[in-house]
From TrEMBL, chain A:
GO MF term (any one): GTPase activity
UniProt-annotated stretches for the region Disordered: 180-222
Pfam family, one: GTP_EFTU
Reactions performed catalytically: GTP + H2O = GDP + phosphate + H(+)
Keywords carried by this UniProt record: Cytoplasm, GTP-binding, Hydrolase, Nucleotide-binding, Phosphoprotein, Protein biosynthesis
Organism: Dendroctonus ponderosae (Mountain pine beetle)
Domain of life: Eukaryota
One GO CC term on file: cytoplasm
Comp. bias intervals (Polar residues): 186-205
SUPFAM superfamilies: EF-Tu/eEF-1alpha/eIF2-gamma C-terminal domain (SSF50465), HBS1-like domain (SSF109732), P-loop containing nucleoside triphosphate hydrolases (SSF52540), Translation proteins (SSF50447)
Domain named Tr-type G: residues: 241-467
Protein's recorded name: Tr-type G domain-containing protein
Biological process, per Gene Ontology: translation
Compartment annotation: Cytoplasm
From TrEMBL, chain B:
Family the entry assigns: Belongs to the eukaryotic release factor 1 family. Pelota subfamily.
Cofactor: a divalent metal cation
Job of this protein: Component of the Pelota-HBS1L complex, a complex that recognizes stalled ribosomes and triggers the No-Go Decay (NGD) pathway. In the Pelota-HBS1L complex, pelo recognizes ribosomes stalled at the 3' end of an mRNA and engages stalled ribosomes by destabilizing mRNA in the mRNA channel.
Subcellular location(s) of the protein: Cytoplasm
Protein name: Protein pelota homolog
Domain of life: Eukaryota
UniProtKB keywords: Cytoplasm, Metal-binding
GO annotation (BP), single: nuclear-transcribed mRNA catabolic process, non-stop decay
A Pfam family recorded for this sequence: eRF1_3
InterPro entries, per database record: eFR1_2_sf, eRF1_2, eRF1_3, eRF1_Pelota-like_N, Pelota/DOM34_N, Pelota_N, Ribosomal_eL30-like_sf, TF_pelota
Length: 669, 383
């Protein structure tokens, strides 16, 4: 009995966790943000483990009824997967369910347990054999280069080491063969990778990505997929600067592009000749005040109109970080582009115009300062540096600075940002004050001695990269490269990818292979969660991929459906939401037409409890569970499985009406 | 539609109609129900046995009367296909034989119903109303996505959808982006040329967020000059550029609410439906106890004679269930009797689509009925 309660409590907590993420009520945010919090999450997992061990023999199938729908769905898919994997193993459904619950839906763990337990007969000996053979590849593997290098080939989630028995059994036999080939390839491609067995806790990054590190013993027998992936990650990235993606947001004409363009110039990222050219040419079209913005606003239309239309990108380095800026457009009409940029960002830079009246226009209802801030928060950006820009226009008035800071502080708190995750920096992008050096103007020196912009940016902390999860890549751009094949640019949401890996494109489920990987114009052999990479795909036509598609691991495909349930937070809408409401759904870079087909329940804002079933309408600031039907199937994940791909934004007539977390995927038909 | 003959007395009898334009097929579709009998000229394949015993088949034109069993409407082609049994024997077709009638433009048909209700009579009136608002074409677009639609008084037809991937601007490589855009504009222009008949269309709305519409219009004019396309150049003034938040077809609703558009295209049914639905939502926001949807709630409001305006989808009257249709007809009659206004939404317009999703029926009340709000749980469960 106690166990059941645990399940429900845990589930509730899980959801609550996500709930905070959007609604920003709690003290704790995404667990990967703060190490202490992560600890908490992990502890919860372990305690759940131990409790399960006490109630070890779960036999009755009908206990499944005690599970939530989500868990049931998960259970079913696990059982299906396991049956596929094991083929002919005889195990009763009750036993299987028991094991699945015991290992918390972790398929590999269950499979291992079954294979290791003599109680369950494996009719097909080959499964065991294959599993075993891969654990001793130097004996079995015919490819000579493979011998002795296996340990080093730790570049993917399907690679194995000597001391990691049987984890490969999770893969169906066919896949195993394929893996063998892949392995050789991988070995060749990563000759430097070292054994994962000694890798624990060595790199500075490790404490962030491997919460498991702290207690190894309890985890005996647990397949170390994670350690592998993490070890590779540490190996590849442990020494270099952390890479951080920063979206620059704010109301139209706040000076975002100018600020970034100037910053890049000061940092020597733009050569003098180019800048001179921009100065001359912008003067010619009467847009000289936009000369710095031209660094990022490259399209002709953008330059002619002096407005950013799509996200501009550029990279630079700070003392401790490598930063890629995503300069978002501020104009209301381009919010879809801004969303696709923000969905790829780790942290945000909010720029506001301090000029008299301008701050107010951007901040009051209908201005983009609010909408942008809410959007990035809902998209998982938790750290924000606010630039109070154009302070030159108000003679660096401290009063004005304080006034704006105060207004923004209270708004951002309401929006769910934690106070210590928000910083304020006074700047002038056009005159270059307080960007990479302390200010020189006396008017500001009198009252400001805080960090300059670049120092503030350097202080951002990098979120954990979920490299141990299956590979997911959201496509943000598609174009022809120089060689054969074509390129997709996007963000690796979870997992990692090697050159040569096969990927599945969802929702179409076409397959393709990765020929090259580029990050910031540099060729790579491997890329990890959090990276924005350009992949060259082969074996597929360019028309078969669209923006918003998800590339995934062929062995762990992402769910595809056109119907799901989401827990939404309704923003300030002018008219209430009813069922039948047609919206544009934004999911990463995807925008698709959708209809809210059911209002399932309205929830209490702070407790998350159901207040009303089947409400007739939802008004602003309410929380609810709704069913959403998309006009065609899309690739998506439960928020509980993958935060990055479990979030959606709903927009109507150019305004964002709600942010949601996917809580249930309803399979097609 | 032309009304040639009408012989209806006390709800019984028949009419003879001539559909004159594609939209009339839509009216006919809403008018004809299962069990009605339809008489029309049609083509029938018949087998003729010669004296020697060999048989040849040939197609003959003949007039048949069938009782309708199935009704199919092809929205793209505006074709109405009726299938049923023959009830008037002639030399070619036996009594009771199945036949499929395709109603044809400019060919009369007679329709007999066991019972003509108010909704059906109204439909005839509406269909035969000569003062029609002109047809409007609309292009709803954003970068990479465009819908070319035709808006008639009771239908919004998506004639073409262009959905292409345009590479984004990239550092130092904006050419691919700009080339992609130009190709996209070319496709949209070709779609307009293919689907818009400038002889009947009074106005072409080009709607988009940002500057897409302006860029497109510039592109089109330049291309027209280059290729000396008289059609586009002569009709240049019919184009009207307006704002829309996206290229998805639902943004058309925003366009139809635009004041400048309204004044230009006069009050079409599409626009007034958008307005009516908007008003329902406004009341729901301000005084929720005065706005209800769903059959149960609306019926209860009607019993209290509280309905000021009833929004109802024509889909509800096309159901096969005679009893249900009767219920809805009675509701409409009762609302009118109590002095309320009834707005029949076309399910072929976007707001009609939305109303359909919202149970197909909604009402704005004269006075609040908070007691209804409490009943909502039962009703939702009934669904
Ligand atoms: N006085 C003053 N003007 C500035 C400053 N920063 C930017 N501007 C001016 O503000 C205008 C808008 O600058 P942009 O950089 O294009 O603004 P943006 O926020 O990128 O605009 P969108 O991308 O279109 O949303 C330009 O005319 C700039 O010269 C500043 O620090 N001081
Ligand atoms: Mg800009």
């Amino acid at each position: 009995m106690a166990r059941h309660r645990d399940i429900r409590n845990l589930d509730y907590e899980d959801e609550y966790d996500g709930y905070d993420d959007v609604y920003g009520h709690s003290v704790d945010d995404d667990y990967y943000i703060s190490p202490s919090n992560r600890q908490f999450i992990y502890n919860r997992e372990t305690s759940r483990d131990s409790r399960f061990e006490h109630a070890d023999d779960i036999q009755e199938v009908d206990e499944v009824d005690e599970l939530t729908d989500i868990q049931k769905a998960k259970l079913n898919s696990c059982m299906h997967e396991i049956k596929n994997t094991l083929g002919t193993v005889t195990i009763s459904k009750a036993n299987l369910v028991g094991l699945i619950l015991k290992y918390q839906f972790n398929i590999e763990l269950v499979v291992n347990a079954i294979l290791e337990d003599p109680q369950f007969e494996t009719n097909d000996e080959t499964i065991k054999n294959r599993g075993a053979s891969l654990t001793r590849p130097s004996v079995v593997d015919p490819v000579p280069t493979f011998v002795g290098k296996v340990v080093t080939s730790t570049t993917t989630n399907v690679v194995k080491g000597f001391n990691l028995p049987s984890r490969d059994a999770k893969l169906p036999p066919k896949v195993l063969e394929l893996t063998n080939k892949d392995l050789t390839h991988r070995v060749n491609s990563t000759p430097n990778a070292q054994s994962p067995s000694s890798g624990r806790g060595q790199s500075p990054a490790s404490d962030r990505v491997t919460p498991e590190c702290s207690e190894g013993e309890e985890k005996v027998g647990r397949p170390d997929l994670k350690v592998d992936a993490e070890a590779v990650y540490k190996k590849e990235r442990g020494l270099g600067k952390e890479h951080l993606y920063m979206v620059v947001i704010g109301h139209v004409d706040a000076g975002k592009s100018t600020l970034m363009g100037r910053l890049l110039c000061e940092l020597g990222q733009v050569n003098k000749k180019t800048m001179h050219k921009y100065e001359q040419e912008s003067k010619k079209v009467g847009k000289q005040s936009f000369m710095y913005a031209w660094v990022l606003d490259e399209a002709g239309e953008e330059r002619n109109r002096g407005i950013t239309m799509d996200v501009g990108r550029h990279s630079f380095e700070t003392k401790n970080k490598e930063i890629t800026i995503l300069d978002a457009p501020g104009h209301k009409d381009f919010i879809p582009n801004m969303i696709s940029g923000a969905a790829q960002a780790d942290v945000g830079l909010l720029v506001v115009d301090a000029t008299k009246g301008e701050f107010e226009t951007g901040f009051d209802l209908g201005g983009q300062t609010r909408e942008h801030a809410l959007l990035v928060k809902s998209l998982g950006v938790n750290q924000l540096t606010v630039v109070i820009n154009k302070l030159d226009t108000v003679s660096w008035s401290k009063d004005r600075f304080d006034e704006i800071v105060q207004k923004l502080k209270s708004f951002l708190r309401q929006a769910g940002f934690k106070e210590n995750n928000v910083n304020f920096v006074p700047c002038s992008g056009l005159t270059g004050q307080n960007l990479i050096q302390p200010p020189t103007e006396n008017e500001i020196l009198e009252w400001y001695d805080g960090p300059c912009l670049i120092e503030a940016i350097d202080k951002f902390t990098s979120p954990a990269r979920p490299v141990i999860k299956p590979f997911r890549f959201s496509v943000n751009d598609i174009f022809k490269g120089t060689g054969s094949g074509f390129c997709v640019e996007g963000r690796i949401e979870t997992g990692l990818i090697n050159i040569g890996d096969k990927v599945m494109i969802c929702p179409s489920k076409d397959q393709s292979a990765v020929k090259t990987i580029m990050i910031d114009d540099a060729s790579k052999r491997i890329a990890f969660a959090g990276d924005q990479a350009t992949l060259t795909l082969s074996g597929l036509e360019i028309q078969n991929v669209s923006i918003g598609n998800i590339l995934c691991d062929v062995h762990y495909p992402i769910p595809v459906s056109n119907k799901f349930e989401a827990r939404i937070l309704v923003f300030s809408v002018a008219i209430p939401i009813t069922k039948g409401y047609s919206v544009i759904l934004h999911h990463q870079s995807l925008a698709e037409q959708a209809v809210i087909t059911k209002l399932i329940s309205q929830l209490n804002k702070s407790s998350g409890e159901v207040e009303k079933k089947h409400p007739r309408y939802l008004r602003k600031n309410s929380n609810a569970i709704v069913e959403i039907t998309v006009s065609k199937p899309i690739a998506l994940e439960l928020f509980s499985e993958c935060k990055e791909l479990g979030r959606v934004m709903l927009r109507v007539a150019g305004t964002t009406i709600a942010a949601g977390l996917i809580t249930r995927i309803i399979s097609a038909n | 539609m032309k009304l040639v003959h009408r012989d209806i007395d006390k709800g019984q009898g028949a009419v003879t109609l001539v559909p004159e334009e594609p939209e009339d097929m839509w009216h006919a579709y809403n008018l004809i129900a299962e069990g009605d009998s339809v008489k029309s000229s049609t083509i029938r394949k018949v087998q003729i046995e010669s004296a020697t015993g060999s048989s040849t088949s040939s197609r003959v034109r003949t007039t048949l009367t069938i009782t309708v069993e199935t009704i199919d409407f092809d929205t793209q082609a505006c074709m109405l296909r009726l299938k049923g049994r023959n009830i008037e024997e002639n030399q070619h077709v036996k009594m009771g034989a199945y036949h499929t009638l395709d109603l044809e433009l400019n060919r009369k048909f007679s329709l007999r119903k066991v019972e003509w209700d108010s909704i059906a009579l109204e439909r005839i009136e509406q269909a035969c109303d000569p003062t029609k608002s002109a047809d409007v074409a609309a292009v709803i677009m954003q970068e990479g996505l465009a819908h070319v639609c035709l808006i008639t008084s009771s239908m919004t037809l998506i004639r073409a959808k262009i959905d292409v991937t345009i590479p984004r601007k990239r550092k130092g490589l904006v050419q691919q982006h700009e080339k992609g855009l130009a190709k996209f504009y070319e496709q949209v222009m070709q779609a307009i040329l293919r689907h818009v008949n400038f002889d009947v269309v009074k106005c072409v709305l080009v709607a988009s967020p940002g500057f897409v519409r302006d860029q497109f219009f510039d592109y089109m004019l330049q291309a027209a000059v280059k290729t000396d396309n008289k059609l586009l150049l002569d009709n240049k003034t019919k184009f009207m550029l307006v704002h829309a938040s996206s290229g998805f077809k639902h943004s058309l609703k925003e366009v139809l609410q635009d004041a400048a558009v309204m004044s230009k295209i006069c009050d079409t049914k599409a626009a007034s439906e958008v307005k009516a639905l908007q008003q329902f939502y406004a009341v729901l926001q301000a005084e929720p106890a005065k706005a209800f949807y769903g059959k149960g709630h609306v019926q209860r409001a009607n019993e209290a004679q509280a309905i000021e305006s009833l929004l109802i989808s024509d889909r509800l009257f096309r159901c096969d269930d005679v009893k249900q249709r009767k219920e809805y007809v009675a509701l409409v009659d009762a609302v009118r009797e109590a002095g309320g206004e009834v707005r029949m939404f076309s399910s072929m317009h976007l707001s009609g689509e939305q109303l359909e999703q919202l149970t197909g029926i909604a009402a704005i009340l004269r006075f609040p009925m908070p007691e209804l709000e409490e009943e909502e749980e039962d009703e939702a469960e009934q669904e």
